[in-house]
Amino acid sequence: TPYYHMKPTFLMGLSALALAATASADVTINVTGATAFRSAALNSIKAKFTAGGNFQYAHDKTAGSLTSSTRSIFVGTFPGISGVTTIRCTFTGSVEGIRALTLAPASDPSPPTYLPSSVIVTAAAAGGGETVSVSSSGATTATSDIAFSDVNTPATPYTSGSFTTDKVGAIVFTMMTNEGSTITNVTSQQYRALLTQGFQPKSLFTGVLADTDNVFAVGRNDASGTRTTALAEIGYGITNTVNQYFANTTSGNTITQLKLADTSATYASTVWGQNIAGNGGYASGGSVATAFGLTSASAQVVDETGAEIQAAGPIALITWLGVGDAATAKTAGGVLCGFNGVTLDLAGTSNTMSATDKAKITNGAYTAWGWERIFRRNSASTDVRTAYSAILAEAATAARIGTSGIATSEFAVGRSTDGGTVAP
After folding, report:
1. pTM metric for this prediction
2. What are the residues whose beta carbons fall under 8 Å from the beta carbon of 296, sequence distance 6 or more?
3. Angle subtended at Cα 147 by Cα 281 and Cα 322, rounded to the nearest 5 degrees
4. Are residues 329 and 290 in contact, defined by beta-carbon separation less than 8 angstroms?
């Protein structure tokens, strides 16, 4: 098989690029981490390949849905790196991303798996030849090189690595309730009470004693930066266990059963060694968003074994969700809530944060946010360092961050730690 060498000034033929992608890629770089920031990360990587020339890419979603994919792969010319560059992405969670940089795949209890270049079948094009809906069955473990995270290493048990890290921007979160619920605001104390028991009467959130229907906590597993940020922000303690549920079965747009998170691999919390019933949660914000676009006027509630806790009846759900996923849930009927009495305009008719919303965040009135960071090992190769710097520069712009967060340069306030005091 001949070797095809690509220069940035040469547009490689379609067949040559296909051969290079499957047989002789010069460098492969693996990117993992935060699901809440994957849209900005993927758009940034794609933009760099677009600048390099003809390229191909594949992902596990439908056409045009790259930014919601869990696994993706790009092959082509990356500015500043000689030859053919392959960048593979798997977004599993912020804490899990830091773990993947700290531990070798063989030592990682749940290492990210990456797609092989063989999944790419669409010919190269200037804007990228897109192969869609690829199966993850061929994905394999590999050493991760770059990770995005909503939290810094002190908020994880993986503090021994020697990393370079930079702030990309801020990721913004919101409290949310599901379609049909009338809850409008959630305070830190209310959310702590909810997570401690797993459910509370609706009257706790409305102040109306007649509101006796139960409200249940739904959320992410402990590999999630979204969860870690929430527990830090509300003063719950990031290592303390929670009680959360998930929508087990649905019929149309209706949740028919809510189940206490079990200890299966699908919902397990393994980061802090606390894989017990209730402490697990969803693996991605997108899955939570789907659940919050569903009504729950008659849902049975069961424990982790399936034994009934509460007969079918009206319930409501509450979660903490990144605004990008929250906007998706809102389109499906979910309801955004205020946090500690401050409500974003996003909760109204718009699906994007307004200038007023951004002012509330960047000036300190709204504190449901955390710094988004990008990490690499200090021992990284020259090619990884080049890719890291290029992706950082692209992702840190307001245009790439989009509606998921805010550029660091826009802030008049800051915080030194996850959940720390917000002040000028």
Report:
1. 0.86
2. 178, 180, 181, 254, 255, 258, 314, 315, 316, 317
3. 45
4. yes
